[in-house]
Design a protein that fits this description.
InterPro entries: QueT. By secondary structure, this protein is mostly helical. The protein is 71% helix and 0% strand. The longest helix is centred in the last third of the chain and has 30 residues, at 117-146. The two termini are 13 Å apart.
Length: 149
């Protein structure tokens, strides 16, 4: 990885962190994480995986679940980005990312806070799906202008 790609990854991580931390409804069972729009970027170009995983890890340090949310978020990202190597359709990748987010975040919320599993899975999964589909649309339409190859 060259210096330019490292810098772009750092900027993506920083933007993800800022968008998550300033969002008053970015964590919990009912969340609407605007920063998830960025999580689809590695589905278009795999060289941005480190930046997104780093951003998710740092941003999740600020959640009420702390280190548990860091582990869960990084795990979701690592699984989704690994599977994206085999799934070439960006829409399917956004879907699988959202499903993993719903299932794993709900499990953490259930185990730590005792929140209802299926309710959390549905709300987190659906909100993530909305954000990742918005991101997929944006980067499919404008990605060549926004992100360098």
């Amino acid at each position: 990885m060259n210096i330019r790609n490292m810098a772009i990854n750092a900027v993506l991580a920083a933007i993800y962190v800022v968008l998550t931390v300033i969002n008053p409804i970015g964590t919990g069972a009912i969340q609407f994480r605007i920063s998830e729009i960025l999580c689809v970027i590695p589905f278009f170009n795999r060289k941005y995986i480190p930046g997104m995983i780093l951003g998710v890890g740092i941003a999740n340090m600020f959640s009420s679940l702390g280190i548990i949310d860091v582990v869960v978020g990084v795990t979701i990202s690592a699984i989704a980005y690994s599977l994206s190597y085999f799934i070439k359709n960006v829409w399917l990748n956004a879907l699988q990312y959202s499903v993993f987010a719903g299932l794993f975040v709900a499990l953490a919320l259930y185990l730590v806070l005792g929140l209802p599993y299926w309710f959390s899975a549905a709300t987190v999964g659906l909100s993530t799906l909305v954000m990742t589909f918005i991101g997929t649309f944006i980067f499919k339409k404008f990605g060549h202008r926004i992100l360098p190859e």
